[in-house]
Amino acid sequence: MPEVMSSEVVVIGGGVIGAAVAYYLCREGAEVMIVEEDDLASGASGACDGFVSLQTKTPGPHLRLAMGGAQFFHELAEDLEVDIEYRGCGGLLLATTQEQMKELRARAKTLKAEGLEVEVLTASDLKELLPEVGKEVKGGSYCPQDAQVNPISLTLGLARKAQEMGATILRGCKVENIVVTNNRVREIHTTEGNIHSRRVVCAAGVGSNQIGKMIIVDVPVLPQRGQILVTESSEPVLKTLVAGAEYLGTKANIEGLLPADAEAAKLGLGFTAEQTAAGNLLLGSTREFVGFDDQTTPEAMNAIARNALRYLPWVKDLDVIRSFAGLRPCSPDGLPILGTIKGIRGFYLATGHSGDGICLAPITGKLISELVLDGETSLDIAPFSLYRFK
Ligand SMILES: Cc1cc2nc3c(=O)[nH]c(=O)nc-3n(C[C@H](O)[C@H](O)[C@H](O)COP(=O)(O)OP(=O)(O)OC[C@H]3O[C@@H](n4cnc5c(N)ncnc54)[C@H](O)[C@@H]3O)c2cc1C
Closest Cα to atom 33, ligand 1: which residue? Predict the structure, then answer.
């Protein structure tokens, strides 16, 4: 590797966001270098679920961003050489109390007013979509526009296609400093040498705060641990994505949907289930602020397993074969942080996607590529500016 490299744009981070930004930049003919300290998909993008869920987005700009991006998955499924296992399977949110049902009903109304298809279902309606639900389940809401993707394949597929279009990928290469002179990004210092570049995109996930410090900007992204259980492979049993209302409560901090149980509240427990193309069930998950600790814990494993039985009692017949944990790059309000930095030309933020980075990766990649190359975006990203926190 030469000691001084150069690139029109440097993307820091080889997770799903960095890969998507690189892919869309390359499609426009830009010269791109992805700098990844470990390996592609070694961060949150390789330790998560594959929900492309619209009904769990916060009504307003967040939902509009997700709805705007949903179409890109179809295109990517065609364009990428890796099978991203995209499935327009729909998604269910289940309620275990009448209060939760009331909340889901009110929410369905709001989401529908914003153009999303959402249907409120009774417990008996659920029979058409699920083999059997627990006695506590009172009904739920169903969004046929929700979908599923394999997050690792999506990340690798985007990066591989970007590489085919000319992108350079530096693995095992850590960004250590960013040189700014006369209010403009000039150079990126890495463990493998310096890179001359006038444009740098920070897609460093939970490393984004550290990257911000290099240009003396506070990027408020904290690691939030999420744990998942994986069952043995089985025949197709889940037609749709499934989540409990408490999952939405903990994710979007909705008071009426937070877990009532103290241990569950401490873990930020919320039920999720999806069946992968290989037939395994991914059962989740937790939301814990424990620094950079990405180990699984017996408490969470037990809590996830017990919670799963409340919703889908038949999972007791499936063996758990492994578990994993990932660190969500969490912003203070759970929405992504996108855009430029005041007073520094050539620095772009594409981070803080919290629990939604897989779903929002293609639209983020598209919009950040527009911002870098044209200075404006086809969808208003002002609501996601860093300066909303000031
Ligand atoms: C349990 C769990 C379940 C989830 N489920 C879903 C879901 O169903 N749907 C959904 O949409 N989202 C989900 N998410 C969220 C999603 O995984 C994240 O939002 C997304 O992966 C973030 O992508 P990223 O590229 O920003 O970060 P990452 O994938 O973490 O990538 C950032 C990369 O930057 C690199 N990096 C950091 N610092 C540096 C540096 N100084 N130099 C070079 N490289 C650096 C890291 O090594 C890393 O590879 C889930 C997350 C978890 C943990």
Answer: 13
Tell me what pLDDT residue 260 has: 87
Q: Which fold has domain 91-144+222-330?
A: D-Amino Acid Oxidase; Chain A, domain 2 (3.30.9)
Closest CA to 175 of 19, 304, 12: 12
* Domain ranges (residues) in the chain: 4-46+152-220+334-389, 91-144+222-330
Cβ of 362 below 6 Å from ligand 1:
no
Could you identify the atom of ligand 1 that is nearest to the CA of residue 357? 19
Q: Does ligand 1 lie within 6 Å of residue 57's CB atom?
A: no
Answer yes or no: CATH 3.50.50.60 is held by domain 4-46+152-220+334-389. yes
Q: What are 324-378's pLDDT values in tens digits?
A: 999 999 999 999 999 999 999 999 999 999 999 999 999 999 999 999 999 999 9
| Residue 290 DSSP label | B
The model's pTM: 0.98
